[in-house]
Specification:
171 residues, alpha+beta, Aminopeptidase, 5 helices, 35% strand, globular, Bact_Acetyltransf, acyltransferase activity, transferring groups other than amino-acyl groups, acyltransferase, ribosomal protein
């Protein structure tokens, strides 16, 4: 697989099933060592049901980018800009299929969202990462720094324990 042949394309509500398929495959691989299977199932339903994704796209101003090679979808990223009415872009999700990790697809998706943020004149990229998620190393490699921690009650007795990371753009 050659990363130069990977296309980054905007997703629409008609591609919700593709996003769900990637989430269903990546979440257990990503979180099984840090979250219970019950919490993974709860969060997948909460964030990736048809209704949840449709609301994210149509009501919450979340934009999804898909990474694809020859009609094979390898990952996605979702972002929101402006975030909370400020010159910031919030990266809500980024997941790469387990078999495609380490090939530069995540870097390509992050580069695409950084270009979008830069073109809009945003000053900062933001994201949350679980405090035990190995992806934190990837974000640091890309220039993100930890700026805060937060615990988010997501219901049913579950808590997201996150680090908030930021990267300055348009300096």
């Amino acid at each position: 697989m050659v990363v130069d042949m990977i296309k980054i394309i905007p997703a629409n509500v008609g591609q919700i099933k593709i996003i769900q398929k990637i989430a269903q495959k990546t979440w257990p691989a990503t979180f099984s060592s840090i979250l219970s299977s019950k919490q993974i199932d709860y969060m997948l339903d909460m964030m990736y049901s048809d209704e949840a994704l449709q609301a994210q796209i149509t009501n919450l101003n979340h934009c999804f980018l898909l990474a694809a090679q020859d009609d094979v979808y390898l990952g996605f990223l979702s972002y929101e800009t402006p975030y909370k009415g400020e010159a910031k872009t919030k990266i809500h999700k980024i997941y790469i299929m387990p078999e495609a990790q380490g090939l530069g697809i995540g870097k390509k998706l992050m580069g695409a969202v950084e270009a979008i943020a830069t073109n809009k004149g945003d000053k900062q990229l933001l994201l949350n990462v679980n405090k035990h998620n190995e992806a934190e190393k990837f974000y640091k490699y890309l220039g993100f720094e930890i700026i805060a921690t937060e615990n988010i009650d997501i219901g049913s007795g579950f808590l997201m324990e996150d680090k908030v990371m930021a990267k300055e753009v348009n300096k």
